[in-house]
Amino acid sequence: MSATKWAGFATACLLVTTSAASSLTQAATAPAPVAQMVLRVVKTPTSGPSREVATADVELAVGESKQLMFAASASLCESSIGGTLNRFGAPGHVWTVRFTLMSAQTDRIAVDVDTERQDDGAPGTRRAVRHLILTEGAPHVLDFVESSTPACAANLLIELSAAMVESATGAPQLLRYDLWLAHRDASGREWTRHEVRTAPEGIRSEFRFEPLQWSTLALMPALKIDDVVEEHVFGSLRGRIVNGGQLELSISTSRRLVHGRGSTGEESGTKVFTAGPGEAIALELPAAAGGSAATSAAGARTLLNYQELFKGHTTAVVLAVNPLQGDKR
Amino acid sequence: MNAEWAGALSRLTDGEPADAELVADALESREMRQLLVDYVRLRAAVRDDRPDPSAAFYARMRGALGSRRPPLIDRRTSLRVAAALALAVLLTGLGVEGWRHWREDTPPHPARVLRFDASEWTAAGRSGS
After folding, report:
1. Pair A141, A157: CB distance under 8 Å
2. ipTM, 2 dp
3. Most Cβ neighbours (<10 Å): which of A83, A106, A159, B16?
4. Interface subset of A 269-308, CB within 8 angstroms of B
5. Under an 8 A CB cutoff, do A265 and B112 touch?
6. Which residues of B touch A184 (CB under 8 A)?
7. Residue A79 burial by CB count (10 A; 0-12/13-18/19+): exposed, middle or buried?
8. How far apart are CA A79 and CA A151, in angstroms?
């Protein structure tokens, strides 16, 4: 091998070593996501509001499995919760809940939950496996039991919630959320609202736009009804900085069309996606639906069909997120 | 001095109507002829007098008042210019502020548009008035 070839070989080895080291460094700086599973027990007395009486949690990396146990007496007067159980009288009900974390990202935590329930006097064990995709902090009811006596409680329920565990290596970054509501009619005319929210990454932040008001006479003159329909758009959002400075975002958006003292009720949806800092993403809401009764100037009752009233209109929430410089907490 | 003759000669040199008899009588007097000559000289001096100060006058005044120069614009003009500038600054500021708010209130052009699928969009109970 000539000197030139040796030099080339050495350079190639150096490049391979450098890139491998770089990959290892990146892997080291991007810790695997960890999620926290929280088991919560809510007791409802025979007279009074429900209240939380026990809680326990475990932290899991993706692929990892851990379990929690909960036991209660048949009267629900005594209970115990944790990785293992404290001894008390005669437990009427014992639950063993085993979690296996399948994947974890902002507001989309996939976990397999294997629940075993053993009731005093009942033959065998009841077992159920659920494959859940949970939004952070939103509870999922696992089981329910009634008391044998109304002395301490009428019943209790066991619920599960999940949350991402923030990296311990760095303080959470403050994020600035710029949100716009953009409503465009069939002719392209646009009405907008703008809201700004600031929150540490991982913390859910709520937003609510000033309602847009629509004259039914302007929307559909043929109806000869001079009323106002208000469009309320609101929701909440959460963001985290992930590898490479990209932002993992979760936004829940709700819309309510209000006419007089009635409304269409709440329509809502959640999107989880990734965006670059400052990258504007539009979330287009489905077309308006539903309707409400209205009275014309002549006194005739008619139905305001929102699909017809807002035909050709589009409503979108535009979101741009930027980490605030120099605002590490 | 005969006042009537002197008055007639004064009116004559001022170009006003004068009594010819009085002028004729006055010119018989040596004193009145001398007065007429004085009137003519005075008229010439007045005619040659310039309304603006001479350059020499300005030079003398500058010397007397130090280095003060005659103002290029008067005080009223200065106030008007200052007011116009203040108004221009105010309007510019309002324009910039309005533009900034307009920019903030107008959503940026989205890089991506995400739409909710039917499975992602749920409706709660409905009620109408």
Report:
1. yes
2. 0.73
3. A106
4. 269-271, 273, 275, 279-286, 289-294
5. no
6. none
7. buried
8. 14
